[in-house]
Structures are given as C-alpha cells and as structure tokens.
Amino acid sequence: MYDEKIRALRMERQHLLIPANETEYDALYRDLQPGQNVYWNGFGQPPTLSFRADFDDLAYNKSRQFRRELIKGRFAGGNLGWILPEDLELFAALYRKPLKNATMTQQMLLERIEMSGPYTIGQLKEESGLLVKEITPALHRLQEAFLIYEDQYDGEWDRGWYRFDEFFSDFSLDRYTKTEALKIVLRRFAHRFVWFTPAMAKSFYKLPEKEIKLAIAGLVSEDVLVESDGGYLLKEDAETLKTYTAPEFHSVYALHRNDPLYKAFEPALKSLAKSLTEGLPYDCDPLQYLLIDGVFHGAVVGHFRNGPYDLNDVRIDDASLLSRKEEIIAAVQTVNFGALPQRFMGEKP
C-alpha cells in the first residue's frame, strides 16, 4: 500500500495523471532541469516533458528559447540541456569543469572568441584552417568550463559562440558550493519523485554518488529529508503519505531515453531491457520504455534510423499485462507517428 501511494503521488507530481497548465509546467520544468529534447531527435528540437502539459510544450519551449528564457549548456555527463537563466549559478556549481591545462587548439579558439567574437564554427574553420572535427570538441570543452557560451535561440545550424561573461556579466560562478547546489536540486528532485535513493539521483544528475550522499546527509541533519526503506523523502511528504489516498489510474506511456523518469531509473531499465531481449535474432536496441500504471514494465526494441525506427518488438515483463496488448500498442503508435511494431512478445500479427 505504501508503494502504491508513492507511485500515485509521483505520477501526480510529474503531471502524468493530470497534465500541467503553463504555471504548473514552469514549476515542473524548473524541478526537472536540465531539460532535454526527445532522444535521437533531430537538431534544433526544443526540450520537452512528454505527456505532462495540457498544451504544446515543444512550441512553448521553442518560444522560450527564442526569448532566451531557456539557455543551452553542457551539464549532466557533458550532455546538452536547457536551464532557466536564474538557475545558471546553481548548475555552474554542479557541472563546471575548470580548464587548468588548455590544449593549443582550445587556447587559440578561446583567444579568438575573446578578442573578436562571436564566431560560428564555419568562421572559426575558415580563419584557423582547422577541421570541424578538431574545432567542435575543443569548443565543447571550453563550454564545460563556462568560458564560452553557445547562443542557440533558434533552430539554425550556425550559432554564435561568445565569451561567457559577455552574455552573463552579472552572474557569479562561485555563488554556491557543490554541496549547497546539490541540496537545492535534491529538494526539487525529492518533491517530484516523492521517494528516491542516492543511486536514482546519481543516475539523473550524473554526479558522483559520494557527493550526493554528503548532500543528503546534510538535508537529513537539517530535518528536510527523512530516511525510509533504504531511500529518502521530504519530511512533509512522510506526513502527507500517512493520510494520502492513492487515486485509481490506468495508463501506458512509451517514454524516450531523455525522459526524467527514465533518467532516474536508467541502470535498472538497461538491465531490464537486456533480460527481455537476450538471444533474440533481430535488432533489440531499446527505443522507448513502457511505463504502465506508474511502473516500468518493458520496452519497445528495434533499430534507430534517421526516419521511422525499426520497431522490431514490444517486450514486457509481466504476463498479467498481456491482456492490455491493444492499449500498449496504441501507446507505442502515439510516439512513433502511427507505426505499428512488427511483433508483440515475439509474435507477429
């Protein structure tokens, strides 16, 4: 019963029971930053929180990008993501990687941008004589050090690269220590996931578990978090769950691999997909994962292509769900432009 309450409250807080309006969405986005686009999707797509808004959040976030109300950076594990400008100092504390020994290429590019920027990659190629494959990783490393900023406010290929302090002169990159920043984001994480483990937070934020545990210990000592069944939840949620009545709900979502729920459970989901596809004679890369009634129960597997994916099979781990085949296939079609999977549990139609 306790697990059912946590699952229902998590789905409610994630707005997977009742989609969010714009005000609710803004708060949800803040708590689940950095936002990312649909996994494997084309260049320039805005970030999205799939199924969680009662409006077109791709169009909404595209307009926020254009107004620079979402800014681009390299955060969790060097992945691209979009954060709110007001949280820049917070995420700098979490993810900035100072550059102590710059390579010649990194130093030359930084000097050009500092002296004469902004530059596009094409302009840097023309002036420096370097290849794009030499320029791009150097820029990414400078970006991780918060020395330069890529201003992608639309979907164009040629984006300007600026000195970081040219765009963000009023920000202090040393406002927070890493532990202070972790305490802030972990409170948000706890609110949206209700109950979590250090491993879940590590998977989501791509930060060392040792640092996460240190921040959690601080929040426990401050009476913000309480321990429960090997995990943690906000103290107020521990009280809420005592009287919370879990609503009945039935839902199937096929979630992509940048979805916040997937990111928190990634290691376990990779193991699940492997166990469900071992020995199959066709391509079985997990394309989407199936969240059924708030629990991950399988995956859509096949092969990625620049175009419609090869949807080779739908694999689930619970035989009692086979009766919901039509519902599951409909969820798969929703995120695959109406395409039908070639198989369901290995059987062709």
Give the key terms.
10 strands; 43% helix; globular; 349 residues; four-stranded antiparallel sheet; alpha+beta; two-stranded antiparallel ribbon; 15% strand; 15 helices
Structure description:
This protein has 349 residues and is of the alpha+beta class. It is 43% helix and 15% strand. The protein has helices spanning 2-13, 22-31, 57-66, 88-95, 104-116, 121-128, 132-144, 164-167, 178-193, 198-205, 209-221, 235-243, 260-264, 266-277, 325-334, and strands at 71-74, 80-83, 148-151, 160-163, 225-228, 231-234, 252-255, 285-292, 295-303, 310-316. The strands form 4 sheets. A 4-stranded antiparallel sheet has the order 7-8-9-10, with helices on both faces. Strands 1-2 form a two-stranded antiparallel sheet. The protein has a two-stranded antiparallel sheet with strand order 3-4. Strand 1 (71-74) and strand 2 (80-83) form a beta hairpin. The longest helix is centred in the middle third of the chain and has 16 residues, at 178-193. It is globular, with a radius of gyration of 22 Å. The relative contact order is 0.10.
